[in-house]
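As a warm-up, study this chain.
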Amino acid sequence: QLQLVESGGGLVQPGGSLRLSCTTSGLTLDRFAIGWFRQGPGKVRREVSCISSSGFSTHYEDSVKGRFTISRDNDKNTVDLQMNSLKLEDTSVYYCAVLSSSNVPGMCPSPDLWGQGTQVTVSS
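Now compare it with the structure written out below.
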């Protein structure tokens, strides 16, 4: 059974950092671009960042540029999202997704397979 699993969420103060990790069971990630998305309370799910299968191409939503960094380790079958300088408005459930293409041509391809999500709460 194909399954994506996110981890690393939690409660953090404004200005703090968290590192989210995405891995799978039943699927090798190295052929796929992977994306991170988030959904805040009462909001639609939106892309945050994505990375190509090779790791050479990335894309970030404007509000996280310079604060978040996406990376992948294909040997470990993981894709991480390092989140620094967290703000109250970053509070969301964060989801990783296998994307419909291996490339990231300046934007994130559409998601094909979702994880179950991990809660990130930024609060003082």
